[in-house]
Amino acid sequence: MKVKFRKYMAWFAVFVLVFQTVLVLPAKADTFPELLSGASDEIKADMISTDSLTTSTDGRYTVFAGPAMDITNRATESYVIDNTTGKITEVSVSSDGVEGSGAAGYGSTTYSVISADGRYVIFLSYATNLVRLDLSGGYTQIFIHDLQTGDTSLVSASSNGVPANAGSNMPVISADGRYVAFRSNASNLVTGDTNSSPDVFLHDRQTSQTTRVSVSSNGGQANGDWRSLYSYAPSISADGRYVAFLSTAKNLVSGVTQLTQNIYVHDCRTGKTALVSVAYDGAEQNVTSFSSYISSDGRYVAFESNSTNLIPGGTDGSRYTFVTQNPLFSTIYNLPPRANQGPNQTIAVGSTVALDGSNSSDPERDYPLIYDWSFVSVPQGSTTVINNPNSVYPTFIPDTKGNYVVSLTVTDSLGLSSQPVTLTVTALNVLSLSDANLWFGIQNNTDQGAKFDIRTELYLNSNLISVGQYGCVADFSKDKSLAKEVSVPFSAAPLGLDLKPGDTLTLKTLARVGTNREGLICGEIAATSGLRLYFDGTTAPSEFGIGMNFNPITNYFLSFTKGNYLLNDESPDGNLRHVDSVAINYENGNPWRDVGSWDVQL
């Protein structure tokens, strides 16, 4: 799937994160900095603040790390300060308020995190006395402390409550504190963890279920050489549905061939995993990526990368920050695609209608689109069907005069469908003349030589609708046994021409001396030669006929039955207007001579 990236300088991304952290200030804050650590009598003067701070969304609570308040315990502990009251609370304690028996230690500075609502704090600790579980393994565990109830519980545990059997770190928490995603080397948090490598997990504090996030969409674990295989650094959406993470695995999605660090996102509801660090044209990144961060609504993922092919025009290989849309973003928030059915059409009954949905689009480029063409209504008696109704370019053939209303709906790759749109195809009983010919069968019974240019004009209710012309036809050589068959092709009738009962078709025939392209006479001609229009009631009872008058008369006819009406002679006695022995001469500019015409009422 093609994606769009926006590139920012790395320092700008850092500025944004810091800006988001301090944007909402407590009510008592002034426009100048305020001292947090050391601002209360509860804090020893030598307490050391770290550079790893997180703040609740409203800015009231800030979590930080510093030395223990107990003078005998010089371990680093985690604290929360109420920026409104100045009250500081130690949070790396048991539910009974007892400080940990070991250092809050490894990663506490980096991984003390407060939930967006300011109620829960996650921290790391080697302590073995914070919960009533066997934590004697000496591994870094992840704990969560409830500031309202004072309860502390273990996060880095399996669904049945067994503590992780290896170190866990890098925790992130959903806005309401229900979900915690983290990295762990443990192999006992879920069943089937046999890759001997760090994975990313999600712990649901409401159900106590722990699941592995760094898996493929079918649940397969990350694979590869354990010495270079790792998944880590999760980032979680506010509702806990999406977790972005980094991994060197090549089997989480198809198409990853390079052993580089990629950014992935996992939908914890559907179990699907998708690649985020992919180029704008769908190509694989050409270097490596770092530091993913997913937006609170889960719609966007920002990350750093040295890849040069992520955006059109590329970059210089420096580390830049990019942002792209989460390819798994829920259809609840997904914008629907837009169907484009093409313009209305007017066409002849029996002709092929070509539909075109290629201008349909999706604002978020969730391609490919799925097409669904169907009839809303057809004329009474029609049995036509749409051929290939799920393609971009389906067809159908109207079999009855009237309006065919066609609907198109498109669905994007995330399953969201457009509003249906319609077009109307008007099918008319049109006299289709694109491949119609007037056929002449000629046999010479004289010893004269002659050639003619033939022109036929077809009128509907006295309006000229088509012309046929053929040059140097009817070569009457002196060979009496010669027979010829020639055709006069018609031009196309106007689009939208509709024949109906009561209309009158008129065939008018003209002739002149046969000429070649240079305008020179192409054969001998006799002054007594001529053409006439006639009707042969026996040979061709329902066709136009044309005759040529020599001495003696040789009869022949042409056929014209093209279209959806059978053209019948409506004259009472079959006598047609005609002229006999029209003299056709080359004098006076070789004019066209009216040989005769025939009216037929439909």
CATH architecture of the largest domain: Beta Barrel
CATH class annotation of the largest domain: Mainly Beta
Low-pLDDT regions: 1-32, 103-110, 434-448, 476-486, 524-582
CA-based shape? elongated
CATH topology heading of the largest domain:
Lipocalin
Q: How would you characterize the largest beta sheet?
A: 4 strands, antiparallel
Strand order of the largest sheet: 1-20-19-18
Compact description:
By secondary structure, this protein is an all-beta fold. It has helices at 10-22, 108-111; strands spanning 6-8, 54-55, 61-67, 76-82, 88-90, 113-114, 120-125, 141-146, 152-154, 168-173, 179-184, 199-204, 209-212, 231-236, 242-247, 262-267, 273-275, 289-294, 300-305, 320-325, 345-348, 353-354, 370-377, 395-396, 402-411, 421-428, 437-443, 452-460, 463-473, 483-489, 504-513, 530-533, 546-549, 593-601. The strands form 10 sheets. The chain has a 4-stranded antiparallel beta sheet with strand order 1-20-19-18.
Describe, in plain words, how this protein is organized in 3D.
With 602 residues, the chain is mainly β. The chain folds into 4 domains: 1-8 and 221-330; 35-212, Lipocalin, CATH 2.40.128; 345-428, Sandwich (Immunoglobulin-like); 437-601, no CATH class. It is 3% helix and 32% strand. It contains 2 helices and 34 strands. It has a 4-stranded antiparallel sheet with strand order 1-20-19-18. It has a 4-stranded antiparallel sheet with strand order 2-3-4-5, with no helix packed on it. The protein is elongated and about 125 Å long. The protein starts with 5 loop residues before the first strand and ends with a strand.
